[in-house]
């Protein structure tokens, strides 16, 4: 039963991703909100973190509320740290930093890019470290 529920949640979240990519933001949010309780019910912390991360990026893109997004990111990072998902933590921080940079919030973006770089360097993802360094340089322009 858990496998079927996991498959259902993954499909629903994937539909949310498609809606997001098509700029159908209300529909994306609805799919994410539909998938989240399923992940929680079966105890899939990775699915929960991935879905919460998608929601926080979507919400930030819609509202531009940095402090609320940072609070939500902290909650996602707590889940990732509980399950030992360093790569996911770095990716979440990096993706959020990219959004901050795109919206002109260079100082907070630098903080998240530094954290991202630190994790990627620690786990040995050289290409991601190099990409993060380019983003850090862009924060200085």
The main pleated sheet reads as:
none
Low-confidence stretches: none
Computed over alpha carbons, the radius of gyration is 15 Å
Secondary structure: helix percent: over 70%
Number of distinct beta strands: 0
Q: What is the residue-averaged pLDDT? A: 96
> Helical region count?
7
Shape: globular
Q: How much of the sequence is in beta strands?
A: under 5%
Distance between the termini: 52 Å
Query: What structural class do helix, strand and pairing data support?
Result: mainly alpha
Listing every helix as H and every strand as E from the N terminus to the C terminus, the arrangement reads: HHHHHHH
Oligomer: single chain
Short descriptors:
single chain; about 140 residues; mainly alpha
How would you explain this protein's 3D organization?
The longest helix has 20 residues, at 2-21. This protein starts with a helix and ends with a helix. The protein is mainly α and 141 residues long. Helices cover 89% and strands 0% of the residues. It contains 7 helices and no strands. 30% of the residues are buried. It has helices at 2-21, 25-42, 45-63, 66-83, 86-102, 106-123, 126-140. The protein is globular and about 50 Å long. Helix 1 (2-21) packs parallel to helix 3, helix 2 (25-42) packs antiparallel against helix 3 and helix 4 (66-83) packs antiparallel against helix 5.
